[in-house]
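Project outcomes to date are best conveyed with an example. Our students and postdoctoral researchers have been running inverse folding experiments weekly, and each run begins with a structure described purely in tokens. The record below, which covers 119 residues, was selected by the lab manager from last quarter's runs and is presented without edits.
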């Protein structure tokens, strides 16, 4: 049974930093894409960043490029999201997800962790 568990969310002032973690279990994830998404109140869930398996190639939404960094530790089956220069518009529930490299959809999701940025 695949499980993804996020942690690291919280309340931070604008300009501050947080690091989110997502611990995965239930299968080997080293070949899989790992991603972060977020959903703000009243808005649809949106893509934030993803990282591929073997080569660790990253891709970011324009809104976070240069401020957020996604990374992974395959030995720990964990993916991270380092968030710097946080702004109130980054306030959202952040979700991690995984998909197989050959898959079209993100098929497993965590329960989410709340990030709140105060102005």
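After processing, the design step wrote out the following sequence:
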């Amino acid at each position: 049974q695949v499980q993804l568990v996020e942690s690291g969310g919280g309340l931070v002032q604008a300009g501050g930093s947080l690091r989110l973690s997502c611990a995965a279990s239930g299968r080997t994830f080293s070949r899989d894409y790992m991603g972060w998404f977020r959903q703000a109140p009243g808005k649809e869930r949106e893509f934030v960043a993803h990282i591929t398996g073997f080569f660790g190639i990253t891709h970011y939404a324009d809104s976070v490029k240069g401020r957020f960094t996604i990374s992974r530790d395959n030995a720990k089956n964990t993916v991270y999201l380092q968030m710097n220069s946080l702004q109130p518009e980054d306030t959202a529930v952040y979700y991690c997800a995984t998909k197989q490299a050959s898959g079209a959809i993100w098929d497993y999701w965590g329960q989410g962790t709340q990030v709140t940025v105060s102005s």
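The longest strand covers residues 18-25. Residues 3 and 63 are 28 Å apart (CA to CA). The training component of this project remains on track.
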